[in-house]
# Entry
Amino acid sequence: MNENFIAENAKLISSIHGLGVKIYRNAELRESILGNDVQVGDDSILLKCKLESNIAINRRNFIQESQIGRFTYTGFNTVIRGVEIGRFCSISWNVSIGGKNHDIEHVTTSAIWGFYNMLGEKLTDFQYNKGKGICQIGNDVLISSGAIILRNVKIGNGAVIGAGAVVTKDVEPYSIVAGVPAKKIKMRFDDKTIEALEEIQWWNWPIEVIRENLDLIYSTKVDKSVIEKLKEIAHTNNL
# Structure
């Protein structure tokens, strides 16, 4: 049976969690739901988040109003706001995803919430939510260190975001992008292979099936024979 570890100075406010969770010192969870075997590192803050199982949130993360799929992990000093993140994603350190954009077409670029806060007044729901949008990160996405992904951007399954990239527009599945602003460098695989992987969706397989096929998934270069084996596994298990 998995045992929970919750540091004495961690704060859990209106939050629930499953078994085997590890919440380290000075971590704070508010209005959040955590599945089984989730780790939240030192000094990390989660506000209104929903996390599936087997997720590792590293130290000094700030994650707000976001959903994260199973077996995804983050590096330290990462900020995630208003993002839907898929399964098996690898998010490095010093990454920023989904930050709110400032309107540059008005008289001021200053955020209206700051004005209201200084007056001790509360924003209406319309004012608070104006300009908010959801950033969507697919499954099995690699986001390298120092990357910035803007709000309202969609990252396809299997994509790779290079270190220090600034992503301002949608990224195709299984493409590699880098630079400022980020541009496509190349595709990871040919069109037929990408189509097959999108159809197979191995990240949605039961854990037991993935465990039985770790060598195939983690240790082989993708070619026609690998795709055929993956298809056979999916067919055999009615996936």
Summary: The helical segments are 112-119, 125-129, 191-200, 207-212, 214-219, 224-236. The two ends are 28 Å apart (CA to CA). Residues 110 and 185 are 35 Å apart (CA to CA). Residues 189-239 form one domain.
